[in-house]
Amino acid sequence: MTNTPLPSAMSGTLTAPAAGGFWHILGRRKSASKPPEDTSAKRVQFNSPLLPYLFLAPQMAIIFIFFYWPSVQAIQSSFYLEDPFGFGSTFVGMANYTDVLKSGEYLGIARFTAVFTALVTFFSLAIGLLLAVKADGVIRGNATYKTLLIWVYAIAPPVAGLMGMMMFDQHIGPLVKFAAFFGWDIKVGLDYSDTAFAMIVVSVWKQIPYNFIFFLSGLQGIPVSVREAALMDCRSGFRRFWTVILPLLAPTGFFLLIINTTYALFDTFGVIDVMVKDKAANNPITLVYKVYMDGFRGNDLGGSSAQSVILMIIVFVLTIFQFRFIERRVHYS
Amino acid sequence: MIRKFTMTGLALVFSATSSFAATNITWWHGMAGRNGEVINEVATKFNASQTACALTPVSKGTYEEALASGIAAFRSGEQPNILQVFDAGAATIINAKGAVIPAEDLINNAGYKFDREAFIDGVRYFYADSEGKFVGMPFNSSAPIMYINDEALKKAGVEAPKTWEEFEAIAPKLKEAGFIPLVQSQLTWQFTENFFSRNNIQFATNNNGYDSVVDTQLKVTDPNLIMMFDKLKAWKDEGYFGFYGAGWNDNQKMFEENKAALWIGSSGSFGGLQKTAQMPFSATFLPYWGSIKGAGTSSFIGGAALFAMSGKSEEENKCVADFFQFLTSPEVQKFYHQATGYVAITKAAYELAKAEGYYNEKPAAEVGIKQLLLPAGEWSKGYRLGFYPQIREIMEREYGRIFAGEVSVKDAFETIEKEGNELLARFAKTAG
What we know:
The complex is a heterodimer of chains A (333) and B (432).
Chain A: H1 7-11, H2 15-33, H3 36-42, H4 51-77, E1 80-82, E2 89-91, H5 95-102, H6 104-137, H7 142-150, H8 157-167, H9 174-181, H10 192-220, H11 224-233, H12 237-267, H13 269-275, H14 287-297, H15 301-326
Antiparallel strand pairs in A: 1-2
Helix pairs in contact in A: 4-15, 5-15, 6-10, 6-12, 8-10, 8-13, 10-12, 11-12, 14-15
Chain B: H1 2-17, E1 23-29, H2 33-49, E2 53-59, H3 63-75, E3 82-86, H4 90-95, E4 100-101, H5 103-109, E5 137-142, E6 144-149, H6 150-156, H7 164-176, E7 180-184, H8 187-198, H9 205-208, H10 223-238, E8 241-242, H11 248-256, E9 260-266, H12 270-276, E10 281-285, E11 302-309, H13 314-327, H14 330-340, H15 347-355, H16 358-361, H17 364-372, H18 388-403, H19 409-431
Parallel strand pairs in B: 1-2, 1-3, 7-8, 7-9
Antiparallel strand pairs in B: 3-11, 4-11, 5-11, 6-9, 6-10
């Protein structure tokens, strides 16, 4: 790409390394708390002190080129008002930030993004978990069930958006006809809440298989002896699930919470782009789509950079919050 | 340092080969499908017509994507020779002084004689500066026109309307005959920008933005424009107007499927519509209000223009000038006009197509040109507004709200004016 700083915030590369970094910290913290003889037995020593850095170099180079460098550029250009072709740029201090934060439209989009992220995360986690628990209980033909549930994950977001758009098409959409049967006149593209509904449905549908895979493997990691012990102590299946299985799934759930939050914030871009068909009009959009509209459609680089910095801060704060407050309640066995 | 070496190396290679190889020039555009193929055909024709230059067209996706790619490329010094920029993006590139060589200068420098009079009136001002000098070379030009479902009008026993008053009178009959009387495809272009041109009303201060970027303000709270949208909303509520969102095709579909009687489309829709429409159709001018004094003037051109990017060698610029000359020759214009449905931009090409009897065969193809040839009013020459693609987005949002019944027409236009003026002020700062 060129020296425009925006794509980093757009594509989700922003969040992936950030999340990766946190996992790294987490890993270190965990190993430090382990008994010393355990770590020394597993530690691998390199012959040359430079070798580990050499192995690390490609990853660091990628993080630097695709994350740190564009981020620094985005921060820099967020303080300027710039002619798109790069002829004149005026230092405006915090003006880009205050303009954005004072704009009623931007705050409306931020509100929608919060609701959208919460709903998509909740429903994709809940349905993924439900399906995983049910599939885990199936004995005959379980491979078929699992494959059927997983394969949606192979669909790329724009394709998912296209399929969703077909299902919700004003003129030919089967789901629109189905809803009309119950007297609900869905108008995707015309009605704000109908479009929001369709976006959430498609985004959740797209993410369920991912959560399903992780929850299922989490469930299969729970020892049979624990389940049998629980079975003897408690007759209620729901209560067993709630007090025994779910706490044991907490590490998986926590990991998925972070992944799903960033998915809803960033990776749904493709779904939204296809569903609003390049014309947002009065349809709901998320913050990352607004960055794209202002930066790539409107050519307002300063304003768009300020927005992507705001997004970076949001993700940063959100991740810290999740690790400080939620992770404390997670037990790693 | 490395760059310097590479450049020297390249220079050596080029000087060694330039004695027998053609000069390569590139053209980035935002057209796909059939229109993209026609661009390739035009390039092939140009390359076959001479040996000094070799033109390579590259599709960059949509208009917006082409502009964004062009900007990004320019910033890193990799710009193409020719960039296609659409009407709403014109201010962005024209106000970036130094990004382009004005087409008129380029052609005159190459030893040709540039003749402004050769172009039809409707296209002469839109991509020109306030003195009338051509900055962009008009390329694919279109006008918003009204397509008529002949069967529907016959069934209702009415004539196609020239004014909105006439439409109001026939709408109940069309509805009774079982048709949606009116649909459109782009409220910004057809009912806002070209509302100002067809009814000859000022769109923005500073001579519609041509004179200066400083303190340019929208005039969209004009009572006539508010009246137009009040009417549209009332027509929608009574079932005289169908609105299917901001997407072009969702609206066009109703006409193609013989469900709507009248559709405001583009003169460039003609080619596609011939294949998709399920009934016979014809076309006429975009209606205006008979009640507005001085209305009925020509419309703005839509579509896009070609810009010669700066920072290229003399040789390459000469090739671009050669290509622009080739492109405006009557034969090539006529070919492009007939292959795509976009209007012919020179008088000679129009005369040539007329002499051939093309319009006797396809009268709908002539409507766009005729509308652009109507007498120009003071305010029908064009507009030059910065960040205009974003202003259009604000309009689309507010129009959606109007038809969803969330906001009154007056409040919507007050919001558009307020937010639009903020964007214009921002743009003035970037250009300053």
